[in-house]
Design goal:
Helix content is 58%, strand content 2%. By secondary structure, the protein is mainly alpha-helical. Helix 5 packs across helix 9 and helix 9 runs antiparallel to helix 19 (395-416). Bound molecules: nitromethyldethia coenzyme A and D-malate.
């Protein structure tokens, strides 16, 4: 297969960009841009400016921008790519935009679609591995395992192993692996879903459908769920570089591990309850609250009590709070607008809105969290539930399929710009105590 126009465009973009990174490193590398305090060292490196990405940026007040565009601006800019009769653009057009920063023409987006279609066949050994796993394995374990076992197909590992792969050319096999991985993720996720929850029955891909639409079709969903799938994958794609899944993917790739090793590791981070797994926890929390009331929607007072009971038992309120955001997550808002339009009378949706009215006040009174507002996960499960995807433990897989778009775009650029192996310096508690007593570490 000859190189696609996306690949040619990317080559041009990377080569044009590279001198900016080189200049910053070589000529301006010692300019100070941040300081590090003891609480940041112990407290999860919060706010330390030490990662670089040009693909998305997260402002604490405004939320995410993909390539400088907010979520509404992104959807507006891509609206020529809305699938006929649908409200959402194709994921293919969004990926082109995420990777290059340019809005594609129809032909360019079609080319991505054709490229992914040509790579989409899931090897039989992946199916065999999935089928050999205990059926009650978490679907995130299955997804991560499926990704990891495809490492044997890595072009990057092959070309690196053959020798002679130059640093400036490393983005090329990283791109090839990432495109293959992206093409195979929807059928793999759909296979896991149908194997685990739909009586081991399968629906073949439909070559006429786009990436998001095809996923909806393969799990057995009808309209407008195809738009739900497109919206989910797009809004979950990227959240700058410091979140656990993006950072892990980037960290592992920095050792020149290929896209399969790197993304599988990122998925394992996404599977934590403080990160992506929170979307299944939210549904569990809501359902448990309703169960206590014989499945009646609680009153605001009852809801307040559930929130306090959760906090008093030492648990977090899933879907609320954020390490960076200090306002309602615009990804929550995007889903809320979709739900208002398509499922306004759904009782769970009404409950989600009620939680939004009550939880920020309770969390503020509780006084611990720096951000009492909802994040993306507070809303995602309810929409899935409404359309009949009721297997909560699958929800993080949906997050993971979307997250692949962002983190893989990032590691392609990481190799394009030749970012170094990541290796921050650690210190001992004794050193921290000494520097604390001295009023700070003496800098050279
Ligand atoms: N419910 C109860 N307590 C909370 C919550 C919450 N939703 N959010 C933060 N806190 C607590 C937090 O546990 C910490 O307590 P302690 O001092 O006892 O350790 C304190 O408030 C200060 O935490 P923050 O600095 O506000 O938050 P941090 O940056 O450490 O953590 C999260 C961010 C997202 C991990 C945290 O807000 C949380 O656990 N939220 C609930 C889980 C969740 O929704 N995760 C999904 C995030 C989005 N995603 O998809 O990844
Ligand atoms: C994400 O999308 O990765 C989450 O909101 C977590 C984060 O940004 O830290």
């Amino acid at each position: 297969m000859g190189d696609s126009s996306l690949k040619a465009k990317l080559k041009e973009k990377i080569e044009a960009f590279r001198p900016r990174t080189t200049k910053l490193m070589k000529e301006q590398g010692k300019i100070v841009i941040d300081k590090v305090t003891i609480d940041q060292c112990i407290g999860g490196a919060r706010d330390i400016r030490s990662l670089v990405t040009d693909i998305s940026y997260l402002d604490p007040q405004e939320g995410i921008r993909f390539r400088k565009k907010t979520i509404p601006e992104t959807f507006e800019a891509l609206k020529e790519h809305n699938v006929a009769g649908c409200e959402m653009p194709t994921v293919e057009s969004f990926f082109y935009f995420l990777l290059t920063g340019d809005i594609p023409t129809k032909a360019q987006a079609d080319e991505v679609a054709a490229d992914w279609r040509s790579r989409a066949e899931v090897p039989q050994y992946v199916i065999d591995v999935l089928r050999a796993m205990p059926r009650d394995s978490h679907p995130m374990t299955m997804l991560s395992t499926a990704v990891l076992c495809m490492q044997r197909d890595s072009q990057f590992a092959k070309r690196y192993g053959e020798g002679g792969l130059k640093k400036n050319d490393m983005w090329d096999p990283m791109y090839e692996d990432s495109m293959t991985l992206l093409a195979r993720l929807p059928p793999i996720a759909a296979y896991i879903y149908r194997m685990k929850y739909q009586g081991d029955t399968f629906i073949p891909a439909d070559a006429k459908l786009d990436w998001g639409g095809n996923f909806a079709h393969m799990i057995g969903q009808k309209k407008p769920y195809d738009d739900v799938a497109r919206m989910y994958f797009i809004i979950h794609s990227d959240h700058e570089s410091g979140n656990v899944s993006a950072h892990t993917t980037h960290l592992v790739a920095s050792a020149l591990s290929d896209a399969y090793y790197s993304f599988s590791a990122g998925l394992n981070g996404l599977a934590g309850p403080l990160h992506g797994l929170a979307n299944q926890e939210v549904l569990g929390w809501i359902q448990n609250s309703m169960k206590k009331l014989n499945n009646q929607v609680p009153s605001k007072e009852q809801l307040k009590q559930f929130l306090w009971d959760t906090l008093n038992s030492g648990q977090v309120i899933p879907g609320y709070g954020h390490a960076v955001l200090r306002k309602t997550d615009p990804r929550y808002t995007a889903q809320n607008e979709f739900a208002k339009k398509h499922m306004p009378n759904d009782p769970l949706f009404q409950l989600v809105n009620m939680i939004y009215e009550v939880a920020p006040g309770v969390l503020t009174e509780h006084g611990k969290t720096k951000n009492p507002w909802p994040n993306v996960d507070a809303h995602s499960g309810v929409i899935q539930w409404h359309y009949g995807v009721r297997e909560w433990d699958f929800y993080t897989v949906l997050f993971g399929v979307g997250r692949a778009l962002g983190v893989l775009a990032n590691i392609i650029w990481d190799r394009g710009l030749g970012y170094a192996i990541e290796r921050p310096k650690s210190v001992t508690t004794e050193m921290l105590e000494k520097w604390a007593a001295d009023g700070g570490r003496k800098l050279d």
